[in-house]
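So, can you check this record?

>
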Amino acid sequence: MKTTTPAWLIVALREVETKLRDKAFIISTIGTLVVIIGSIVVSSFLGSRSTEFSVTATDESSYRVLTQVQNDKLEDVGLSIAKSTEQEAREQLTNGDLDAILSSNNGGQEFSLTGDDSVDDQLRRLVTDAVDSVLTEQMLSSAGLSIENLPSDDALTVTQLQGDADRNSMVKAMGFLFSFLFYMAALLFGMPIANSVIEEKQNRVVEILASTIRLRHLLTGKIVGNVILAMIQLLVFLSVGLFAAYLSPLEIPFLGVVSQVAGWFVVFFLGGFLVLAGIWAALGSLATRTEDLQQSSGPVVTVLIAVLFIGLYAKDGFLVVASYIPIASSVAMPIRLLSGDLALWEPILSLVILLATCWAVLLFAEKIYRRAVMHTGGALTLRKAMKLEV
């Protein structure tokens, strides 16, 4: 039994094949993957590595300070201490065997931390805190008091009404990532739809295609092809990023939550991109030159920039409202899901509104496309396009 491939699928596959042969597209995709993996690897390396310092004291007071540093130091800092004469210490520092020398003056009331050409900031902070602790303890002892009577560092507890600091940091980071991916995909795969339509109008190729397949199928193929490309690239970016994060030796908080919300983001991304794809197709059919598209695409680019800013800065009531507005909801609702405490009906309602808008926009775009794509007598407005005969 002989089967024929649908016309719209042929067009879609051609769009995919053409893009996959584009060197610029391949290089940008690989470059982005390298950045994603590299950022996670570098973060893991910086977060897991330990810093080692070697410091020598030239007197008893300085040695006591270094002992205090060992007691107070962070888990990712290693400190090797010793005691020697001033001359021996300077020779070791010159030879590169030491990171610094600690000496005391004025009867142990002042201290000097000496490096060869520089002193590490982290080491300087550790020694400064230790000097404060030692001098404070000496002052209290001379007054007959104990340092244990002082208020502890845990006397103040910082809390938040809305979540916690780690989760808020994660939401900000993922909000930027979601909005940036959506913004880039809308430009990389949305605008080419309009450019492709304009090119076919200028070359009169659309007239030949129209005699072979229905214009509705031609438009469907263009949109489906670019949707496939955008979704494949998005899934690759998210999958590689999450996989690299799971393999990272550094413990990344809320990784499970991010993985779950990433699935929601893919669905909202699809709905939002389809809305934009229909708009780009309609704008391309209304224009006859690339210059016309540059003028008419201003509002769409403005919307995309607004979505990017929503992902970066929106919060509280504004974020809630944006999560129900089509296109903006593609980013806003996943960000709210990252924050937690959402009823299941909220993302479902937002998704229903988005899909309904998507259906309406695609139907309207198809009407505009069929009426305007064969017109070559200059740029059209929506009102003029609707008056044209199909």
User: Anything to note?
Assistant: The CA atoms of residues 3 and 9 lie 13 Å apart. The chain has two domains: 7-39+163-387, 52-155.
